Amino acid sequence: RPTCRFLDHALAASPSGGTIAIECCVRGEEAIVEVVDSGGGLSGRELSHFLDAWGGRRPSTDADLGLHHARLELEKADGRMWAESDGPGQGLLLGFGLSLLRASGIPDAK
């Protein structure tokens, strides 16, 4: 579900004719999904507020609400999520990671 929520956000943020890329890979013991859009991007300050929105601020759009739900879903699965942007006009990367050990039922070695 987080992948669909990230795609919804990317579709809402991207201009007509824009591009959206999805990358899935394994890094270490984590499955990683990243969605990159060609939307407006965010400055460092805007990115900080954007990330804070996942932590408690009331979502202002359906796409924001979707990201809020994605965060809750990932927290239940002991996952993590992040956002990156090179600045205004540079698009946005939304990513999440889930433990492959947890998904396989293998106890975490922590």
Sum this structure up briefly:
With 110 residues, the chain is an alpha+beta fold. The protein has helices spanning 2-13, 44-54, 62-76, 100-104; strands at residues 20-27, 30-37, 80-84, 92-99. Strands 1-2-4-3 form a 4-stranded antiparallel β-sheet.
Report on this structure.
The chain has a 4-stranded antiparallel β-sheet with strand order 1-2-4-3. Strand 1 and strand 2 (30-37) form a beta hairpin. Helix 1 packs antiparallel against helix 3. The protein has 4 helices and 4 strands. By secondary structure, the chain is α+β, with helices and mostly antiparallel strands.
Shape: globular
Q: What share of residues are in beta strands?
A: 25-35%
Q: In terms of per-residue confidence, which ranges show pLDDT below 50 for 5 or more consecutive residues? A: none
Overall strand count: 4
How many helix segments? Answer: 4
User: Could you report the average pLDDT, rounded to the nearest whole number?
Assistant: 82
Which structural class do the helices and strands define?
alpha+beta
Following the backbone from N to C, one meets helices and strands in this order, namely: HEEHHEEH
C-alpha Rg (nearest Å): 14 Å
Q: What percent of the residues sit in helical stretches (DSSP H or I)?
A: 25-40%
- The main sheet orders its strands as 1-2-4-3
* Major sheet summary line: 4 strands, antiparallel
Query: Terminal Cα separation, in Å?
Result: 27 Å
